[in-house]
Give the backbone structure.
Amino acid sequence: MDKIYVILGKSASGKDTIYQKIVSMCDLVPIVYYTTRPIRNGEVDGKDYFYVTEKEIEAAEKSGKLIEKRTYNTVKGLWTYATISDGQFETQRDGIIVLPPKAYYSFIEYFGKDKIVPIFVHVPDGIRLRRSIERDEKQDTPNYEETCRRFLSDAQDFKDLVVEKQFVNDKVDKCVSEIISTMKLPLRKQTIIDEAANRLKEFGFFDSVVDNYKNGIIGVSDVEQRGRTISNDMLPIIEQIEKGYNCNVYHVVYTKTEKDFLYHFITVSNDISQWEEERSISKCFRPLVYSYSVINKTLSEPHSIRVHKDVARVLVQKV
């Protein structure tokens, strides 16, 4: 791993939800803790945690592989959580993990400051406290004393922490998008495919077009009610467009004029920060495209088109 992204945040800041969403959307390796606590129903060894004994953690410490560990005194005894330098760090992909401040400092000490990239999730104290109490109220036996203890403990644990990149979690999806965009986290290919498929549905394309796209087949529509898929001679053009404009082509609309033949390659940006604007444009049935001129390639250019739904056909006019 060249980089390890560390999400930090006080209790009830939503950091775990943000972490889960980023892991599902981005091409990052989720780093898995080791723990001595018993496995719970529904958990999977190696996915949620690595379930080990205290002796195994001690052995990792003696061998120099222990990065950090924390022990909590629970009603069921002492439970240790630890991060161990094992095979999950030996990959070309970057990693991501949620850590408390002390563990974050241990990561810096073990890997070096240049490799660790902190991301701080901020929520005002009053909102956090209300969230914690509301969450407690849903439990069979609320533990308000523990909630207050954690709230006060956070004030001490985070008081000396300085993180340049801070993100306000007032709306979780907005916060996630801002983190991914600002930190330039690599999106999973499937995340982009899902976004494009949703746009095809909004435009009113047939389910078969959407399903084909999800299976890696880009559709072509024209004004003569004919639907087909891209031909091999289009692949180099699509590759050039995607590379040149940092986007993905997800559908093609073919039109012809008296003097030219045009292929309009409908695109979705690889930059999630552009999606809100693109979605706004798409809702007006004006997707961003790259129009390719067959007769005069110098006229090829990016712009937007107006997509009209007319029963079984798709009509297009440039705007």
Remarks:
- The longest helix spans residues 189-203.
- The chain is about 35% helix and 30% strand.
